Amino acid sequence: MKVVQRKVCLLGDFAVGKTSLVRRFVEDRFDDKYLSTIGVKVSRKTLQRVDNTLNLMIWDLVGGNEFSRREIGYLVGATGALVVCDLTRLDTLDAVSQYSHQLRTVNPQSVLVFVGNKVDLTEQRVITDEQLQALSDSWNGSYLLTSAKTGEQVEFAFSQLAQKIEEILP
């Protein structure tokens, strides 16, 4: 069986849950304590797929105003990304296009899966499915609703990203 290694990124504004999504996916745990990512944190997870073994190198990148020209260099070599917004903060949806544009500028063929995180906070939700659908359509991507806290759809989000990566593998 073929072993394939691919770099993927988690992109999104400050405090949307990128680190929590990675922690839930890689370690199957959640921590309420907020620790801001400084620069980049790289994790790894191996997925057994039908035709190969896929080693994902997951780059959890700093978000918000901290994401500068220097951090754009972290996008080099990325095959795809989960682009994350916080369903309780409308401004984080606006930033998603900026991160998508930066990734596609560096890697035009990269695949995008948009993630609306914190779906468990139903009372505070301000971003609609229609807004997420319009965004994902504009970037030829797909979207999912996740909760790093409960684990809802987290594994599936990374699986979707892996599937889209396999579709473009040589």
Characterization of this structure:
A 6-stranded mixed beta sheet has the order 2-3-1-4-5-6, with helices on both faces. It has helices at residues 18-27, 69-72, 90-106, 129-138, 154-168, and strands at residues 2-12, 40-48, 52-61, 78-86, 111-117, 142-146. The protein has 170 residues and is of the alpha/beta class. It has one domain (2-168): P-loop containing nucleotide triphosphate hydrolases (Rossmann fold, 3-Layer(aba) Sandwich). It has 5 helices and 6 strands.
Percentage of residues in DSSP E strands: 25-35%
**Structural class determined from secondary elements:** alpha/beta
- Helix count equals 5
Report the span from N to C terminus: 15 Å
The order of strands across the largest sheet is: 2-3-1-4-5-6
Oligomeric state:
single chain
What CATH architecture label applies? Answer: 3-Layer(aba) Sandwich
Query: How would you spell out the order of helices and strands?
Result: EHEEHEHEHEH
Estimate nothing, just give the exact number of structural domains: 1
CATH topology: Rossmann fold
Strand count: 6
Helical content class: 25-40%
The CATH superfamily is known as: P-loop containing nucleotide triphosphate hydrolases
Largest sheet: 6 strands, mixed
Low-confidence spans: none
So what's the overall shape?
A: globular
> Mean pLDDT score, rounded?
91
C-alpha Rg (nearest Å)? 15 Å
**Name of the level-1 CATH class:** Alpha Beta
